[in-house]
Amino acid sequence: MGKEIERKYLVHGDEWRKLAKGVRYRQGYLSTVKERTVRVRTVDANGYLTIKGITVGATRKEFEYDIPAADAAVLLELCEQPLVEKVRYKIPFGGLTWEVDEFEGANQGLIVAECELSSEDQKIELPVWIGEEVSGDPRYFNSNLIAHPFSKW
Prior knowledge:
The protein has 153 residues and is mainly beta. The protein has a single domain, classed as Hypothetical Protein Pfu-838710-001 (Beta Barrel). Helices cover 7% and strands 47% of the residues. The protein has an eight-stranded antiparallel barrel. A hairpin with a 4-residue loop joins strand 2 and strand 3. The relative contact order is 0.26.
């Protein structure tokens, strides 16, 4: 069974920009009910379908599958709108890979970083550009940014 354990933080400053090149992501949701989300995503020329369960603490069930990019493009048209568009930067630090997401469109101005862990109590070293932790705040879930975009907070 797939499982995701992650922590999410706000990002401050621009120091992180020097550490990696960004990759464009487009994603949409076929289901955003809190018990399960079904996400379609394109990353460059690749397509993915992801099913996630409800978050308990910092953990949730997660299943991700490669799908043809052409299928992903058609499925994105069926998704709730607006799509979530962002540029992701993968930055190694402290033995982890930090994923910094700089949002565009209706969520422009929002920048968050997350790291996946092997256990909820794993000790982590925070980079200097990490700010407030927002792991438990549902406003920052990508699936919630559709109905409640950052630009309207």
